[in-house]
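for the writeup, i need someone to sanity check this before i put it in the appendix. the sequnce is what the collaborator sent (i think, or maybe the updated version? ugh). structure was predicted straight from it, no edits. if anything looks off just tell me and ill rerun, i have time this weekend
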Amino acid sequence: GMTIKDTQYTYLDPHGMPSGGDWGLQRTGAVYMDGVEDITISTNVMTRLDGNAISVNRYARGVVIEKNEIVWNGDNAVSMWGDAENITFPDGTKMGYDGTTGIQPRGTQFIQNIVHEIGIWEKQSSMWFQAKSCSNVLDSNIFFNGPRAGINFNDGFGGNSTLMKNLLFNTCRESGDHGPFNSWDRQVYVTKVKDGKTASVYKAWDYIYQNFLIANYNSQDPVDNDDG
């Protein structure tokens, strides 16, 4: 692997609204993907990156992020940000209700990574953030020492994501209100994820099991599902 380090801060760069949760986000990262298939990022050290470490956008399939250490970063460790059709903003972001065209990161595997000391500049940041993204697997990761939630789902888009065998602690060190895992679901999306063929506002189940979540510092719940 490689050591990736010393990118500039991005907290004053143009931000967009990924979906119906609380977040604003910039579409940049030290490793940036958009319209990709079959990408593996493995056994790297990513450190002193003052923005996002890994940013996966719009259409993405077969992305594997495994066995990396991400440490002392200014913003998120990993962000997934898809689009949906019917409403287009001036920056090109699509934020309508129609998610059936598949222009989202789907099926990303985030496995055996260690993430700590993130959110040095951007306090609304996480080890893993997803908006308009689904069918992802977070397996056997360790996250500690962050300002807000360790894992954040900004919406209920599609579902079918799995969180298993992760260890999260020392989250919400500089904020309150939620905990190691946080989600929102304020905006309705139409996808075919639930049965693979029928366009529906009903999402597939997400699965959270066999994790060790410690709700210390200012956390109120290990798993906090806000607003739907």
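The CA atoms of residues 192 and 199 lie 5 Å apart. The mean pLDDT is 94.
thx in advance!!
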